[in-house]
Amino acid sequence: MTELALTGFLGLSAALVGIGIFGILTRRNFILLLISVEIAMNAAILNFVYFAAFPSGTHGLSGQAITVVLIGFAATEVAVGLAIVLALNRLKGTINVARATELKL
Amino acid sequence: MVLGVLIAFGEMLSPGTYTNVQITWLHLPPAPGPFPNGFSLVMGTLVDPISSLMLVVVTVVGFLVMLYSIGYMHSDRGLPRYYAEMSLFLAAMTGLVLANNLLEFFLFWELVGVCSYFLIGFYYEKPSAASAAKEAFLVTRIGDVLFLLGIFLYFSTYATAGPDGGWAANGFVFAHNSVPFLPLPGANTTTLTIAGLLILGGAAGKSAQFPLHVWLPDAMEGPTTVSALIHAATMVAAGVYLLAVASVFLGFTPTDQLAIVAVGGFTAFFAATMAVVHPDIKRVIAYSTISQLGYMVLAIGAGFAMVGLYHLFTHAFFKALLFLAAGSVIHAVGTQDLFRMGGLKKHMRLTAAAFAIGGLALAGIPPFAGFWSKDDILASVYSQLGTHPLYWPFFVLAFSAVFLTAYYIFRAWFLAFSGDGPRDPTLPAAHEGPWVMQVPLVVLSAFAVVAGLFVFVPGFQHLLVQGTVLGGIPPTYPATDLALSSISVALGLGGIGLAWTLWGNGRVFSLAETSPVQPLRRLLLNRYYFKAGYDAIGLRAVYPFARATDFVDRFVIDGTVRGLERMFGAGSDRLRSIQSGLVSDYAAYVVAGLLALFVLLLIVGPYLLGRFGGG
């Protein structure tokens, strides 16, 4: 693959981070918020995959290994996040994060 | 009391014994600085000839006054407070007498001062009493500051002098292993003179010597028992005691001696003049106290510390007697105004006799106590007249004060006790107090008669002489000068005679309004305008200064602190509002922080590196 292709892939990652952050900042629905976090995180995972492949064969399998670990992390995170969604729903009757202001002192 | 007398007897039997018991409170090891050999703070008791004499005075007079208080104060409110403060005072006074070093001395000195403040202000609901207490405290405070400065000067001067690593390393005690540490040669004379003058300032504050005398007459606002114990017999004598201790253990330079003689001699006369016109029975006695303290200071200045203390000893008895007799009168008729009393001797024979004995002792009529000690003072100063020409005027002043003393005290006696009846018919019928008030009068009367004769007891005389040896003064007891004594007795009798002519038998001598001495009388009644002057100084100079410092404190110092506090308060209020609790807000802050990091790392960092060169 060429340098040009790398630039394109990195551009994709940047776009995904941007979409994720935009979602985090604008969404009020907790589930959509979680999805946005996942999108941003996937951008980071993608980066590991690219750099494991460029230049090919010189870095062994560490990039791929980290990718797998990170996907596992993401799954755990979503599990915790969904548990919070359930608890929030039970407490407030809604999953709108604008209603959850208990972090305030 | 019994213990005090026993200790004194022991001291008489073996004069020159020093019993010193002490514990070290704090010890600093040798280190470079003003005290190269280390520094100790010591608490201890020292029984020596001087303190044993004072111990008798404090315990005996203290006991009698406490006994008298039972009768005098029986109907007062706040009795627990009264007895608590009196007991604290007696404890502090005993501690002061027995202190074995200057710091401990100062500690108890302050304690008796604060007790005096409490007890003058005992009737604190009376504005005059409250302000008198404040005045006494503040004026003596001036003396205390001087005294403390004097202590510091002595400490720094004598720090390394003496055996065993020097005075500082041994805790500044007066005597160690029966050897007095001081005075030691080799110190800078100027420094010692200044230190001595500062000590004199402290003593003048406590003993109400000119020019710090103003507080004592006002201190008469307290109960009469307090005046008798604190402001006649013991606390005010602490200043004299300090001078005696200082002259024996620390030593005074000739300049200091002259200053002490000047203060004492002048005060003796000056205070006596004010007593001549005053209408208040207690204040007349108070002025007389100042005057007598002046005599003691005079004797110490002339180098005869023990003669001064001897007068202190006799004076304590007859002055306490006078005060308690006056208290009896006040207790009976409910006023202190001499011009409203009269003819009291019919109803109060014992009190009249006691007051007369006290008066005779004060006036220096033999064989009463005051004669012997006052005569010794005059004789001792007379014997020193050759040492300095400037002793002369003060000797003359003190000598003429004998006449005034006899006059004013018998003026008070005649006004109160002689005549047919009270000049103010509204006064209640006089009566003697209960036995607890009469017993102290009788005992003190006995002392006032015989205390002077103690000097003929060999042990007692030994005590007096032994005390003075330490100061390097030859242990010759001043020989009684017969001519001098006759003159002073004649002056005393003359004073009594004049008092009888003017005031005897219920006569009231009134000065014509046009009389040329009228301005003098007004001057004396207004206490030479000293109090007014001090008030003016206080109002004009000290008060604005106090206001200025208060302003600085309140607005500059407090203002800075409060401004800082307000700044942080407001800042945190603002900061708190961004803590909305909304997750998305927090996420936004995270993103903003991230962006800021990017800007910093990618734009500002390279720019700075390019500008100043990376390294």
At a glance:
Chain A has 105 residues and is mostly helical.
Describe the model:
The complex is a heterodimer of chains A (105) and B (615). Chain A has 105 residues and is mostly helical. Chain A has helices at residues 3-26, 30-53, 62-92. In chain A, helix 1 packs antiparallel against helix 2 (30-53) and helix 2 (30-53) runs antiparallel to helix 3 (62-92). The radius of gyration of chain A is 17 Å and the shape is elongated. Chain A starts with a helix and ends in a 13-residue tail after the last helix. The mean pLDDT of chain A is 83. Chain B has 615 residues and is mainly alpha-helical. Chain B has helices spanning 2-13, 49-72, 79-98, 102-120, 127-158, 189-206, 215-218, 224-233, 235-250, 254-277, 281-301, 305-333, 349-363, 369-383, 391-417, 435-450, 458-469, 482-503, 518-525, 530-577, 583-612; strands spanning 19-28, 39-47, 175-176, 179-180. Chain B contains 21 helices and four strands. In chain B, the strands form two sheets. A two-stranded antiparallel ribbon of chain B has the order 1-2. Chain B has a two-stranded antiparallel ribbon with strand order 3-4. Mean pLDDT of chain B is 79; it is low at 469-475. In chain B, 69% of the residues lie in helices and 4% in strands. In chain B, helix 2 runs antiparallel to helix 16 (435-450), helix 4 (102-120) packs antiparallel against helix 5 (127-158) and helix 12 runs antiparallel to helix 13. Classes of the chains: A mainly alpha (105), B mainly alpha (615). The interface between A and B is medium-sized, with 15 and 11 residues.
